[in-house]
C-alpha cells in the first residue's frame, strides 16, 4: 500500500465523522471518497457499515471503473457514481454523497435552491441545481451528476428524489460543500416558508463568488 | 440464563442508545425488544426507566403472552403489543416503538407518508402506512400493527394519534427501520411544506426495493 | 444545613442538566426549584449563572415569600413565581420554568395545545392550557400559573408571550412535565403545519390519563 | 504580549466553543472578537480555520483599521466590519458575526423580528432590526451595522441576505446576544408559521427591558 493510500484511508475516517458532526447522515447512509493522486484509483467507504465501525483499514480502494482493488469489504453501493465522476472530471479529487434533510427536501420537489444568501454566493456562485432522476445500478447517476455540474460553478447537485452529490479538489473540499449545501438549503427553506425572498443581484453574486474563491482563508 | 438471553440483554442496551443517538425518543418513551431464538420468549425494556439507567440486568424477559418470566422490574407498558406481534408474525425477531417527532406528526393527521425518496423505496418499498387508533391495555394495538403490516413491504406502521412501531428480522433491523422512518418522515414533511412533491413511478420503486433488499451491504 | 437540603442541591444540578440535555434552554434561561419537605423553604437556581457553572453549593435556599435564606448568590429572577406556587399549592414539590421553543411558540399565539396524541393524554390528561400575560416583578406570574393549573389535569401552563411553567409532586416530576410539554408542543405543531389534526375522543383521553397516572412505571 | 491580550486569546477560544454549542455556526463560518482594553487593538479569529483547531495562539491581533499586528495567520475575512464597529462605537468591547439559521432566514426576507416574547423585550428591548445589503471588501458592512445599531436598544442586527452581527460591552455579552438572537428568531418564526402573533404593548416592553438591564443576574 502506498503512503498516499494509507493517508487517504485515515483522512476518510475523519471526514465521515464530519458528516455525522454536522448532521448530514443517519445510520449508514452517506459516503465520502478520495482520488488517489497520480493513480487511476480512489478510496471509498465500504457498504452498509456503521459510522462507529469505520476504521482506516475498513476503507476500500477501487479503480475508476468501480472495481474493488484493495480491501476486505464490498465498496459503497454508490461506488459506480463516484467512479463515473472521477473518470469524467479529472480536476475532481473528492466526492461526497448524502441524503441530508433540507437539501433532499428541495430535490423531492425538483427545485433548485435560489441564491439569496451571501454565503451561498461565496461557496456556490449562484443557485444549487437539480439533476435528473436516475436509478442506481448503472452509470445513470454518474452521468446525471457530471451533466449537471460540468461548467457550473456549484460543487453540489440535488439529484431528483434522491439526495446530494458534491465534488471538490479534495475530499475535504467536497465535504465542506456538502456541509454548506445543507446549511443554505435549511436557511433558504426556512426563510421562504414565511414569505417571499429578496434576490441578490447577479453582479453582486459574481463579485462575492470571485472574492471568496480567490481571497478567503489562509494563503 | 441462557447465553442467548445474556447477549440479547447486552444488545438491547446498545440499541436503546441508538434511539437516543438519532433523536427518536425523550425521557423514558420508546422501547426495543428482541425475540429469544428458538424459545417462546422475548427480552424488552423495563417500564419507566431512564435511558441512562438501562443495564443488561435491568432488561426483562417475557413469554409470548407478555407475562414477566425473568427480571426484577415491570416490563414496558407496551409489552402486550410487542407480544402480540411475536405471536402473530413468526418471522419477526425484533420490535421497536417510538414517538419520534415527524413520524408521529404524520400519524396525528392519519396520513401515510408518500414514497418520494429513493431511500424510502429502498427501505420501505413504498409508502409508510397508517394503522388504526387503539387504546393501550389489551391486544388492540398489537392487532392494529399486525393487520397493517401483514403482507405489506413496509417494516414501519404509523399508529394513528400515537407513534411508530417497526419490525425486523432482528432487533437491530427494527431499530434501523425506526431510524429510517423518522428520517424520511422528516424529509418528506419538509419537502411538502413548500410545494407539491414529485412522485416516483411504481415500477422504479419496485426496482429500487428489489435491489436494496438483495444487494446492499456486506454479503 | 439539613441533609434534605444538601440532597436537593445535588438533585437540582442533575435536573438542570436534563433541561440542557433535552434542548429546553439556552444560555442561562430556565430554572428548576424543589420544595424542602416539611419546611417552608425551597431550593432554586441562582440568577444568571451558566449551566456549566452550576454546583450544589451555588444553589440558593429561599423561604416561601421568595426571600434568600441561604446561599451566596441572588436567587433566580423567577423566584417570586416559584414561591407563589409553593404557597398556594401545598401538593406541589417542584416547579420548572423554561422558554422551550415550541411550547413558547404556542404561547406567543395565545393558543392551547390540543390533545391529539396518546402520549399527551397520558401525561397532561387533555390540552395544555394558556395562562395570562403577566409582567415580572410582583405576584402576577405566580397568580396566573396557579389560577390556570388549579383543578386542571395538566401540570404545564403556557404563560402568554413568555414560556412554560410546570409543576409536579417532585422537582423530577416537574422536569419530566417540561420535557414532555416541549415534545408534544413540537410534534403537534409539526403535525398541524401540513393539515388538520384528528382529535382523540374525550372518553379515550380520560381512559388513557387514568391508566397512565395509575399503572405506568415501576410500582 | 500584554497579559490582557493573552487572556482575551484564551477567552475567545471558549466563546467560539459557545457558538458551536448553541448551534450558531457550521464549518468555519462565524467569528468573535474582543477589544483590548485601553489600546487601539482587538483580538479576532483567524480566517478559514476549523473550530477544532482554534487555540489561544491561533487568534490574531489587529489595529482598529483591521491591519494585522500580531499573529501568524490571516485575520477573519470579516475583520474590516469588526474594526469599523470598534472605531465608531467606543462603548463596544466585543463583536460577534454568525449566519445562524433562523436569524439569517429573517434577513433573507429583509424582515425585522417583532417583539412578541418577554425574553426578547428583556434582551433586545423591542424588535431586532434589519441592516442594509452590503458587499464584503470595504467599510459597507461596518457602516450598515453602526447605522442600524446606533441609538437602538437591540445589540443585534440582521444584515440583509447575509447574517447577524451582535455587539456588547464584552465579547461574552456579544456572544450572549448572538445566542439569544437565534433563540428568539427561531421561536418567533415557529410561532408565526401557524397563525398571527399577539403583540406585547410597548409600555410593557419598556418595563421588561428596563428591569432586565438593571436587575437581572448577580450584582
Helix-strand layout with pairing:
4 copies of one chain form a homotetramer.
Chain A: H1 3-21, E1 31-35, E2 41-44, E3 60-63, E4 68-70, H2 79-88, E5 94-98, H3 101-109, H4 118-124, E6 130-131, H5 140-149, E7 156-159, E8 163-168, H6 171-192, H7 202-215
Parallel strand pairs in A: 6-7
Antiparallel strand pairs in A: 1-2, 1-5, 2-3, 3-4, 5-8, 7-8
Helix pairs in contact in A: 1-6, 2-5, 3-6, 4-6, 4-7
Features:
homotetramer; 42% helix; 7 helices; L-fuculose-1-phosphate Aldolase; 8-stranded mixed beta sheet; globular
Structure, explained:
The structure is a homotetramer of 219-residue chains. The first copy, chain A, is of the alpha+beta class and 219 residues long. Chain A has one domain: L-fuculose-1-phosphate Aldolase. Helices cover 42% and strands 15% of the residues of chain A. Chain A contains seven helices and eight strands. Chain A has helices at 3-21, 79-88, 101-109, 118-124, 140-149, 171-192, 202-215; strands spanning 31-35, 41-44, 60-63, 68-70, 94-98, 130-131, 156-159, 163-168. An eight-stranded mixed β-sheet of chain A has the order 4-3-2-1-5-8-7-6, sandwiched between helices. The longest helix of chain A is centred in the last third of the chain and has 22 residues, at 171-192. The model of chain A has no long low-confidence stretch (mean pLDDT 95). Chains in contact: A-B, A-D, B-C, C-D. The A-D interface holds A 22, 116-119, 176, 179-180, 183, 186-188, 190-191, 193-198, 200, 204, 207-208, 211, 215-219 and D 26-29, 46-49, 73-74, 77, 99, 101-102, 104-106, 108-111, 133, 135-137, 160-163, 189, 192-193.
Amino acid at each position: 500500500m502506498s503512503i498516499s493510500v494509507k493517508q487517504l484511508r485515515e483522512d476518510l475516517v475523519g471526514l465521515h465523522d464530519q458528516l455525522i458532526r454536522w448532521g448530514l447522515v443517519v445510520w449508514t447512509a452517506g459516503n465520502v471518497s478520495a482520488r488517489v493522486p497520480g493513480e487511476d484509483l480512489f478510496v471509498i467507504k465500504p457498504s452498509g457499515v456503521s459510522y462507529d465501525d469505520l476504521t482506516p483499514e475498513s476503507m476500500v480502494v477501487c479503480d475508476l471503473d468501480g472495481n474493488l482493488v484493495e480491501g476486505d469489504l464490498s465498496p459503497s453501493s454508490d461506488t459506480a457514481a463516484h467512479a463515473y465522476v472521477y473518470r469524467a472530471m479529472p480536476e475532481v479529487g473528492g466526492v461526497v454523497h448524502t441524503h441530508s434533510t433540507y437539501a433532499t427536501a428541495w430535490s423531492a420537489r425538483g427545485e433548485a435552491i435560489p441564491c439569496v444568501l451571501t454565503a451561498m454566493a461565496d461557496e456556490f456562485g449562484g443557485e444549487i441545481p437539480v439533476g435528473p432522476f436516475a436509478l442506481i445500478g448503472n452509470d445513470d447517476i454518474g452521468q446525471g451528476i457530471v451533466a449537471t455540474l460540468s461548467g457550473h460553478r456549484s460543487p453540489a447537485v440535488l439529484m431528483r428524489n434522491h439526495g446530494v452529490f458534491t465534488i471538490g479538489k479534495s475530499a475535504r473540499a467536497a465535504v465542506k460543500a456538502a456541509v454548506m449545501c445543507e446549511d443554505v438549503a435549511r436557511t433558504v427553506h426556512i426563510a421562504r416558508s414565511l414569505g417571499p425572498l429578496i434576490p441578490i443581484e447577479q453582479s453582486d453574486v459574481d463579485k462575492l463568488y470571485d472574492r471568496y474563491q480567490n481571497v478567503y482563508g489562509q494563503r
